[in-house]
Amino acid sequence: MLLQAAGHEVVAVAAGGDELRELLATTPADVAVLDIRMPPEPDGGLTTAERLREVNPEMGLLFLSHYAESHYLMRILRIGTESIGYRLKEKIGSVEALSDTLARIEAGEIVIEPVLAKRLVDRPGAQRKDAVATLSERELDVLRLMAEGRSNGGIAAQLFVSAKAVEKHIASIFTKLDLHPDASVNHRRVLAVLRYLRSQRDED
Amino acid sequence: MRLEPAGASLTSESANGAVNAEAWRRGELAEWHRRRLLERKLHDGAAMRASALVLRLGVLRELVPDGNAPLLEGIDDVQDELHLMLDELREVAAQIYPPLLEEAGLVPALRELVTQLDAPVRVIAGPHAQTRFGDAEPAIYFGLADGLAAAARSGRPVEIVLRPAVSAGGRELLVSVTGVGPEVGEALLDRVQALGGTVESGETTEVRVPCE
Question: Are A29 and A23 in contact (CB under 8 A)?
Fold first, then answer.
């Protein structure tokens, strides 16, 4: 209902992942909205998304959940790092929030629930390992907003600085994190975010 | 130093002791089961209802005629209140039984827990990050959650190493915690002794718990 109020067309609705895949095989859609805990249980949303991405890599994926957990974020980012989103159900409770999320996913961005991105980036007592430790406070601010999937313009607006300044910070982050300049900018953004998130967790 | 359970000797060799120990273990397992059901009920009931309300209010908001600012503000306020309520419900649910502990297991749940602690705590599981440890999972999780809350205040770096082992009695989970005081061992002992687990406290706190 909220989707319709926001002017989006709902082309198909399914109770479970398997039904959804069947429907989407014949009905084209821009974005599939999934619940992580949807059937087939217990995390059917993730397995469904993996298959949807295989069949149709162009289609955006939006995960809605009652919980924002970094464990699921890691699994989602393994499915894809473009046109993908993970948000708390209740946080897309307005037409603006929902449309903004969908528009960013359609534009190819990653959209991450801000509270989750913040939690991962703000661990106060945590030792920031390796290269991430060399970033300045400002660069960390920029990286945190990148982790939320914000564009340069969005980051500039949030930090009240010029887009040029943001570009400079991002270039410095890429250098400090030793990210290859021949990868596309979008790809390097994702790598920077992943490097960052990983430095906050112990994947060993 | 091996920490001993307080009160009666529950590791007694007598037949009576064995019966008591088994009853104690079953009671503890029933308690974890009850907690899982309670968390599920909270999620499927109150939490689902509240988050559906947020979305319904979002739909109603679109029906408000242009220029009725007080009504729009009122709806925004109610949505904000519902957000707070959902945060509180999540907090309570996590204390009853963290959903991630049931869905993904001990290592992911501990990693999530330590990202929320105001302290440098590392969880090291080597190749066992996905391994499930059966009945030992809630005992270790809640023991560490209780114990680390105190340890976190010291700000010292803490390392938690988890690994499975096989003993004469069957499969076991070994947990070594470094960088913490005796309160962590005591908190863990409270949880693991009913399952037949042991805690050695010293430079490193070493816990062994049978799983299954």
Answer: no
